Amino acid sequence: MNVLLIALDTVRADHLSCYGYRYETSPNLDRLAGEGVLFERMYTPGIPTQPSYTTIFTGQYSITHGIVTHGGTKEINPKSPWLPSILQRHGYTTCAVSNLWRMKSWFARGFEFYIDPSHRSKYLHTVDAETINSRAIPWLEAHHKEKFFMFVHYWDAHTPYLPPPELRRKFYDGDPFDPSNESLKPLWRQPFGEWWRESWFSQLKEDDREVTDADYIRALYDAEIYYADMAVGKLLETLEKCGVADDTMVIVTSDHGELLGEHDVFFDHHGLYEGNIHTPLIFRWRAGGVTGGRRVPHFVQHVDLAPTILDAAGIPIPDSMEGKSLLPYLRGESDEPIYSRIITQECTWQAKWAIRTDEYKLIAAREPDLHNMPMRELYHLKTDPEELNNIYLERWEVAEKLEAELEGWIKRMMEKNGLSQDPLVEQGITLGRRWHRWVEEKRYW
Predict the structure, then answer these.
(1) How far apart are CA 305 and CA 324, in angstroms?
(2) pLDDT at 190
(3) Do residues 141 and 224 touch, judged by C-beta distance below 8 A?
(4) How far is it, in rounded angstroms, from Cα 327 to Cα 37?
(5) Are 173 and 418 in contact (CB under 8 A)?
(6) How buried is 272 (Cβ within 10 angstroms: 0-12 exposed, 13-18 middle, 19+ buried)?
């Protein structure tokens, strides 16, 4: 059995056509889902990039592996298991086509081959899918006869949204420069709006006309997803050509989503709202008894990926991994709910915890945030899926119960890990304290 783990950075589930999106942004992923299993409610236990990928590779929650923020100074828990290292010890040839190691060194652990195509890019996340494939496909062609674990990381849906010119109007037919359109004005009123305006937005100008339509920016995000999807299609074709598609477990997910103006968060991934924490998860493994075209409606999390891969490979799952193997659900052997609720956190732009059940979501802030959102938010997701109506005061009894469950879980996890203080409070937000320096220093893309 081989493993191909594909990460589509910053892709929210509801902007993929296989998750019901109105545009056909993901034809190759749609086909993959038709041949495999799609998990409808995959959630990230921590955002953004560094906490999320550390969870994917450790099978642990952020409060356990120690990385609760992006760009912090904390080192990973030295006792945390590491999926690539485990697979390497069990005879796998391991390869990453990624640049995460340039953020934090632990992302290079356990990889015999670490191919970083971003050295020619000014910023890590501006490396495009074609460049990623130019490194990934030759490696796969050269090593497909070995038992391999391959991690391929596409950044395209992350800002800046600069898809190839021929795709920029694929999902848009309006006038992006209409001077009467004021849909971006809420962004310009924000203190860090200048950062966006003077960085990649300046690259979208035509004849010195500035983009005014937020829908055009959203369409560029969709175009980036489509562009990455085309690259995934070529990577999957390579598996077929090499004759290893059947015995390769293909996994597609993302580290987090993106907010596109919801709650006045424009084109970034802070805020524990559905657009940020609901991510895609698709498996295909033809030789592993995974029948195609099934959808699993239960909650699953990034902590489940490492245990699932090890279970499928016949490798013992370390007791320190906190996720659950999804193999019974892949094979149709179980249909029981896996989790009754999801707990997630962020500590990069905002310091917040959230608990999400089938019906409600409670968001609890540890300190005020840049958007002046309430310290407590409660949403009834059945009737308010877009989280527009904060009913915390009206349904205080529900909020009180959820908060008690959330705080109880945090307390138990702190005791388990020997922590004397909530790590969100101890470490504090990172990027949320730096943006003003970026504007002052004109650190624009």
Answers:
(1) 8
(2) 79
(3) no
(4) 11
(5) no
(6) buried
Count of other CB atoms within 10 angstroms of residue 112? 15
Residue whose entry in the numeric block shows the structure tokens 């995974």: 290
Contact 94, 112 (CB under 8 A): yes
DSSP, res 8: E
Q: Is residue 361 within a helix (H) or strand (E), and if so which, with residue range?
A: strand 360-365
Which class for 108: exposed (0-12), middle (13-18), buried (19 or more C-beta within 10 A)? Answer: middle
Q: For residue 420, give both structure tokens.
A: 């004397």
Digit-coded pLDDT (tens) for 335-371: 999 999 999 999 988 999 999 999 999 999 999 888 8
Secondary structure (3-state) at 263: helix
The structure tokens listed for 9 are 């950075």
pTM for the predicted model, two decimal places: 0.95
Cβ contact 82:75 at 8 Å = no
Please check whether residue 267 is in contact with residue 161, taking contact to mean a CB–CB distance below 8 angstroms: yes
Tokens of 208: 């010195």
Helix (H) or strand (E) holding 276, with range, is helix 274-277
pLDDT band for 445, please (50, 70, 90 cuts): very low
Closest by alpha carbon to 277, among 379, 153, 161? Answer: 379
Report the distance separating Cα 196 and Cα 159, nearest Å. 10
Which residues are CB-neighbours of 137 under 8 A, at least 6 positions away?
A: 234, 235, 238
pLDDT surpassing 60 at residue 444:
no
Res. 328: pLDDT tops 50 = yes
Residue in the structure block whose two tokens are 């009467």: 180
Show the domains of the chain with their CATH numbers: 2-182+216-335 (3.40.720.10), 343-440 (3.30.1120.10)
Those residues with Cβ within 8 angstroms of residue 160's Cβ, 6 or more apart along the chain or in another chain: 126, 199, 200, 203, 445
Give 396-405 pLDDT, tens digit per residue.
Answer: 999 999 999 9
Amino acid at 62: S
Across all residues in the chain, what is the average pLDDT?
94
Tokens (6 digits) for 418: 């020997």
Note the pLDDT of residue 306: 99
Of 427 and 63, the one with more pLDDT: 63
Does residue 82 have a pLDDT over 60?
yes
State whether residue 198 is helix, strand or coil. helix
Q: Which residue has the tokens 């493994």?
A: 285
Cα 42 to Cα 279, 300, 437, distances in angstroms: 6, 5, 35
Separation between Cα atoms, residue 193 and residue 139, nearest integer Å = 41
